[in-house]
Write a structure and sequence with these properties.
This protein is about 40% helix and about 20% strand. By secondary structure, the protein is of the alpha/beta class. Strands 3-2-1-11-12-9 form a six-stranded mixed sheet. The protein is globular, with a radius of gyration of 19 Å. The structure holds fe (ii) ion (2 copies). The site of one fe (ii) ion has 7 residues, from loops.
């Protein structure tokens, strides 16, 4: 039992990660825990990984970590994500790549607490509805018996879902949410990286106290102008023409795929 600082979806945003860690340190956390997507979208992937490793953080792999190191392809990426991940693949250092490639898909933080990035069985699934949570609660029961608290990322929103049998409800966030030890929860700490968010640019993270079974969401200001400037200068942002070019290429690939299959069958 401990006080954990839970974060995820850092996406190479060094300024936001430093702000989030300073906030968690000020609250006296015992351990930092990351639910994946350490790299992608922003220019400081190596620095973010080094920072987390230096703090002895427990991490799992997100889809951007897998795609950025060539373990997954771009098929399910948006143009924006694909563009930044192509850049990420070219720039990550060897030490970072080795570390990311070795990250597990899940981690049992404590017997009742599981880390996953997207869905329990699909790292690229966005769990954004009560139906998704109901389905994944079944997967959790089958694949990780005894887990009652599933910490997840990928959808970049601070959320608490409570599961009671077949009933799922989103729990309103208060200053400090006390969890019921007899129920199952799916909780997203939000995203450290706020570059994809349109309005407020806060680094989001969370405190999890497994002594009294409580969570508290945190939102911290950071120097988002510095992050954006670096991302633009180092080629992580997509322009409108490149965006259209990627879309045309994707449409052509879909149209040509059946013809290519036929041609290969003819041989
Ligand atoms: Fe993400
Ligand atoms: Fe993700």
């Amino acid at each position: 039992m401990a006080l954990y600082g839970v974060l995820g979806d850092i996406h190479g945003n060094r300024e936001a990660l430093e702000a989030a860690i300073a906030c968690l340190d000020a609250r006296g956390v015992d351990r930092i825990v990351c639910v994946g997507d350490l790299v992608g979208y922003n220019a400081d992937g190596d620095a973010c990984v080094a920072l987390l490793r230096g703090r002895g953080a427990i991490s799992i792999a997100g889809n951007h970590d897998l795609i950025g190191t060539g373990k997954l392809g771009f098929e399910r990426c948006s143009n924006k994500a694909m563009h930044s991940l192509k850049r990420t693949r070219r720039t990550l250092g060897n030490t970072t790549v080795e570390y990311l490639r070795a990250l597990p898909s899940h981690h049992r933080l404590e017997p009742a607490v599981l880390l996953t990035h997207g869905g329990v069985r699909d790292v690229q699934q966005y769990m954004t509805s009560e139906a998704h949570i109901r389905q994944n609660a079944e997967f959790l029961r089958a694949d990780f018996p005894g887990a009652r608290l599933c910490l997840f990322g990928h959808s970049h929103e601070q959320k608490i879902y409570e599961v009671d049998g077949q009933d799922v409800r989103e729990v309103p966030q208060v200053d400090r949410n006390l969890l019921n030890r007899n129920l199952v929860y799916f909780i997203n700490p939000g995203s450290v990286d706020a570059s994809r968010k349109r309005a407020d640019k806060f680094a989001e993270c969370m405190l999890l106290d497994t002594l009294d079974w409580s969570v508290e969401f945190l939102r911290v200001r950071y120097d988002c102008a510095a992050t954006e400037a670096k991302a633009a200068v180092f080629g992580y942002r997509i322009g409108p023409w490149t965006d259209r070019l990627y879309s045309v290429r994707r449409r052509l690939a879909v149209k040509l795929a059946p013809k290519r299959r036929e041609a290969s069958l003819d041989k």
